[in-house]
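Task 17 of the worksheet. Students: predict the tertiary structure of the chain below and write it out as structure tokens. Keep your answer in the requested format; marks are given for formatting as well as content.
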Amino acid sequence: MQSQGNIRVVEMLRYLYQHTDENHTATVTDITAYLKERGIQAVRQTVYADLNALITAGFDIVIVKSTQNQYFMGNRLFEYPELKMLADAVASSKIISAKKSEALVQKLGCLTSIHQAEQLKGLASLSSRVKPGNEKVYYIIDSIHSAIF
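Model answer:
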């Protein structure tokens, strides 16, 4: 059985990764409320200690100092401008169907906060390029790639 402390830290990290970015910060009160929704009891001091433990472990959690400190996940696998560029390339590609483009952009959105993911979806829907109807394009490209190499 998992200890409550381990689950709490993982849920805190999940919250910071999914719900925070440079423009959407979270306070300890926000984090505590999220944990409570998940059925995990935590007091402010525990949340502060867990945040410090995550920072010590190497997670880039940025602290915005104020009367009530605010936190957000800093460094991610891809920066948001890189994700926008990738989403735009996928959305404007002539060889990827509209359905596959939407699925790929949604997967790219999983690499950032839910707020930025919504913006990525909006960018993908702006593409007015004609898309093919062939849903098997991935498999065709993979077969061609395998044949070449």
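Marker's comment: Residues 4-73 form a domain with the Arc Repressor Mutant, subunit A fold (CATH 1.10.10.10). The longest strand covers residues 61-64.
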